[in-house]
Inverse folding.
C-alpha cells in the first residue's frame, strides 16, 4: 500500500491554536495529527504548498504560503456545529518539478479516497485541481464523478507546459473527466477568452457566469437537479472568484466577483451533498492578504462546509 505518511510533511504544531477553556473549545484543540487517529477520522486535511503553476502562468507568486496561512486562521475557530472527526495529514512533499508534485499528490489523494475519507485540499496553485481530479477518476471511474470549478477563470487553457490555467483542459483531454460532467461557475467574461468559452460550449460543459450566478436565487436548486445523483463530486474553489474587497490576497484579484457570503454559502452547499468527496481551496496569496482577510474567508468557508456535512 502507498504510504501517505512518508510522502507528506507533518503540520507545524504552532499552527494549532489552543484556548485551554472547556467552555470555548477551538478546532486547534480537536483536529488530530497523530497517526493512530487517521483510521477513525472522516475528514482529511491535505495541503499542497506550491505556486510553480502560478509562476508559469505569469501570475503573482505567493500561494505556496497559503496552506499554513489558512491553517493559522482555521484552527482559531470554534467547533460550533462540527462533530466530524478531522485529521490533518500535513502537506504533499513538493518535488523538483510541478509534474512530479502532481504525480505524488495524485497518489496521496487516491489512497485517502480509497480509505473512504473525504478531503479538504488547501493549495497552492489551482493547477492542483488536475492532480485531485485525476485521483477522483482513478478511484470512482471517469463516468462516475463531476467537477465544479468555482472560479473567475475557465482554466482550460491549451498552454504547454501545464500551469495554473490548464488543469481542467488536462482532465478533459487526458480522458479523466467527461465534458458533460464539468461545471464552470462564476466565470468573468472580461477575464476569459471567447475561444475557451466556445471550447466548453462545443464540448457540452455547463457554464454559469458571475452575472448569471448573482441573478439566480435558485442556483443551488438548479445544481441539485443538474448533478447526477449517483456521481461523486469534486468542488474546486479558486479564491480569485471572490471580489477583491472581500479577498485581497489572491493570485489574480478583481474588483468584481462573488461576495464573501456567496462563497461561504457555496462551500456550505458542497458540504450538504452526501456525494461530495473533495473540496479544494486554491490561489490564496498571503503576500497580498490585508489583515489575513482571504485566509480567514477560506477558514470560515471550510468551517461552513464541516457544519453542513450529512
Amino acid at each position: 500500500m502507498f504510504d501517505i505518511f512518508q510522502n507528506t510533511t507533518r503540520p507545524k504544531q504552532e499552527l494549532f491554536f489552543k484556548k485551554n477553556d472547556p467552555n470555548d473549545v477551538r478546532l486547534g484543540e480537536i483536529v488530530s495529527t497523530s497517526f493512530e487517529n487517521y483510521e477513525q477520522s472522516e475528514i482529511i486535511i491535505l495541503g499542497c504548498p506550491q505556486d510553480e503553476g502560478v509562476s508559469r502562468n505569469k501570475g503573482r507568486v505567493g500561494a505556496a504560503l497559503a496552506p499554513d496561512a489558512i491553517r493559522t486562521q482555521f484552527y482559531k475557530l470554534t467547533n460550533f456545529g462540527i462533530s466530524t472527526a478531522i485529521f490533518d495529514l500535513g502537506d504533499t512533499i513538493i518535488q523538483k518539478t510541478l509534474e512530479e508534485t502532481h504525480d505524488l499528490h495524485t497518489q496521496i489523494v487516491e489512497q485517502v479516497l480509497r480509505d473512504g475519507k473525504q478531503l479538504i485540499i488547501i493549495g497552492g496553485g489551482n493547477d492542483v485541481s488536475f492532480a485531485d481530479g485525476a485521483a477522483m477518476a482513478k478511484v470512482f471511474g471517469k463516468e462516475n464523478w463531476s467537477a465544479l470549478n468555482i472560479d473567475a477563470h475557465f482554466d482550460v487553457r491549451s498552454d504547454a507546459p501545464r500551469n495554473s490555467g490548464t488543469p481542467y483542459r488536462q482532465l478533459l483531454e487526458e480522458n479523466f473527466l467527461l465534458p458533460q460532467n464539468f461545471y464552470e461557475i462564476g466565470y468573468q467574461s472580461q477575464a476569459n477568452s471567447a475561444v475557451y468559452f466556445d471550447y466548453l460550449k462545443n464540448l457540452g460543459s455547463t457554464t454559469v457566469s458571475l452575472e448569471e450566478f448573482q441573478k439566480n436565487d435558485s442556483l443551488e436548486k438548479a445544481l441539485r437537479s443538474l448533478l447526477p445523483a449517483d456521481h461523486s463530486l469534486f468542488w474546486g474553489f479558486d479564491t480569485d472568484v471572490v471580489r477583491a474587497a472581500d479577498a485581497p490576497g489572491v493570485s489574480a484579484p478583481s474588483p468584481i466577483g462573488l461576495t464573501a457570503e456567496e462563497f461561504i454559502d457555496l462551500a456550505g452547499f458542497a458540504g450538504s451533498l452526501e456525494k461530495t468527496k473533495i473540496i479544494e481551496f486554491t490561489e490564496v496569496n498571503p503576500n497580498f492578504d490585508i489583515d489575513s482577510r482571504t485566509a480567514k474567508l477560506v477558514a470560515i468557508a471550510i468551517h461552513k462546509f464541516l457544519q453542513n456535512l450529512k
Remarks:
- Residues 8-307 form a domain with the Arginase; Chain A fold (CATH 3.40.800.10).
- The first strand starts at residue 8 and ends at 9.
- The chain has ten helices and nine strands.
